[in-house]
Amino acid sequence: MNFYNVTVNHSFNFKGYQCDIIMLPVTIYNQAEMIELYKNSATLGVSKIEYIISTGVKQIHIGAKIELEDFLHLDQLKPLSTSYTQNDNSVKSDTSNEDADDEGDAAKKPEAADNENAEAPDDKKKQQEEQQEVKDNENTK
Fold this sequence. Notes:
Layout: H1 2-11, H2 31-43, H3 48-54, H4 59-71, H5 88-101, H6 103-140
Helix pairs in contact: 2-3, 5-6
């Protein structure tokens, strides 16, 4: 790859910029594993482009596909809910809608909400104390 990078940068004047060609290490032997690796990275927010490219979509088509999806209003389609795509608010709102349907659970709902709110600061304090202990241990080393 270095040969191509040097050749392209030497042949074209990018005025202070340099071209860097990168080929993903995906082969027919490790394709499934690499796609899974890039998918997990994209799910965590690292790089979505590498995941898309590893599935076989060419870079030149990515922008056109995004524009087409916007034009057709396909952004209204939502991905399936996973622990990565849900936040605490969406989970609580989903459960509160289900609980509101049941009359027996509706009476218990405020008490449960108070208990959750009471526990949350304690959990935060514990986390902060643990983080402080880790920092102190690192400083003493």
